[in-house]
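Hi, here's the filled form for the chain we discussed.

Project: internal
Contact: R.S.
Residues: 180
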Amino acid sequence: MGTRLAAMTVVGFLGASTLHGAADLKVGDEAPDFALAASDGKTYRLSDFRGKKAVVIAWFPRAFTQGCTIECRSLAKNGEKIRQYAVAYFMASVDPVDGEKGNKAFAESEKADFPLLGDPTKETAAAYGALHPERGSAQRWTFYIGKDGRIAAIDRAVKPATSAEDMMARLDELKVARTR
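And the returned structure, exactly as it came back:
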């Protein structure tokens, strides 16, 4: 019985560290690099933006769900305002890019004027600590990455209806340059 309890304790500890993995990624840390396919047919790499512009990755749980649709609409409706900043911004999920319920179809349905990244292997979501261990989907967390490739801010309390306004306020707070 003692061995079983010890094994359960180890499993519980490992599970807890996975659940709280995002706590390990904090402001100032190097952001994990990625190469993810997007709804616009391109593949984006974080390293391509290093030294050029800030990057925002807004992780969301699932395409075509209520909260995610509201968030996508907020960002699409305010795209012209967000593009006034020197920033590349994306929504990202563990959904595939292609298919009836993929991010490309979701982006088209919501008239998203920005790329939605697909991470069906879940490797990038896990690297960011944004993968929910029980549900297997991404948590609704937004990561702000500076031109230097370091985490500048993490929003773990994203409000879908005001996500664009909140993103712009955070970009101002982080003093991200405006392009116009």
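Let me know if anything looks off before we file it.
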